[in-house]
Design brief:
GMP Synthetase, Chain A, domain 3; 4 helices; three-stranded mixed beta sheet; 206 residues; Rossmann fold; alpha/beta
Length: 206
């Protein structure tokens, strides 16, 4: 990662995620919460006296920590629904098997692997973006006599900037580079509304 991830920590019960939060912080990630530490109230921080919902800013990944005795959803993990609706990839940390959010969980982890799982979940979430770019570039590359099958698209984030690097198998002159950049940006535009700038770089690989 080019920068620390912004992680939304969600807990089935107060204090359930303390160890995970500590590990994420020690590994350089920025941990945000829907509830203050130990808060037993129903209201999240977005409804508190000083409203500051983390999802109003940029969140890279959400981590749901479920206590061993948790079965159904709990009021304390209400932010899971908000994260899912916002399109934030979800990592679940638990020892109790699949929880109620199984169909939306990108990866499962334990306290020791949560950091790596977050990074992987973010990369997995970017794969549809890269695939959309490659698909959009295909016809233009074919017209130029280049193979779309060998194109590589890498996406990195330094919010509010999104960096897109495209490697093309063959020589790329300036007009083709510009045309590929425009099509890549057009493919990404519907998926990058919360980014201020999308930087596209095209490299021709001999």
């Amino acid at each position: 990662m080019t920068r620390p991830l912004n992680v939304l920590l969600l807990e089935s019960n107060p204090w359930a995620g303390e160890v995970t939060a500590q590990r994420l912080t020690e590994d350089g990630y920025r941990v945000h919460r829907c509830h203050e530490r130990g808060d037993n109230g129903f209201a999240c921080v977005g409804l508190g006296p000083d409203p500051h919902c983390p999802l109003d800013d940029h969140v890279d990944v959400a981590v749901l920590v479920r206590a061993d005795n948790s079965t159904g959803p709990t009021p304390h993990e209400d932010g899971v629904r908000c994260a899912i609706r916002a399109g934030v990839p979800l990592v679940e940390v638990s020892d109790g098997g699949s929880g109620p959010y199984a169909q939306w969980v990108a990866l499962h982890a334990d306290e020791t692997t949560a950091t790596a799982a977050c990074a992987t979940a973010v990369e997995l979430a970017r794969q549809p973006m890269a695939a959309a770019v490659v698909t959009r570039l295909g016809p233009l590359l074919a017209e130029a006599g280049l193979s779309p099958d060998d194109v590589e698209c890498r996406i990195g984030s330094n919010h509010p900037d999104l960096d897109v690097t495209i490697e093309v198998p063959g020589p790329v002159d300036r007009p083709l580079e510009q045309a590929l950049s425009v099509r890549a940006y057009d493919a990404l535009r519907p998926m990058t509304l919360d980014y201020k700038t999308v930087n596209v770089t095209v490299h021709g690989i001999p």
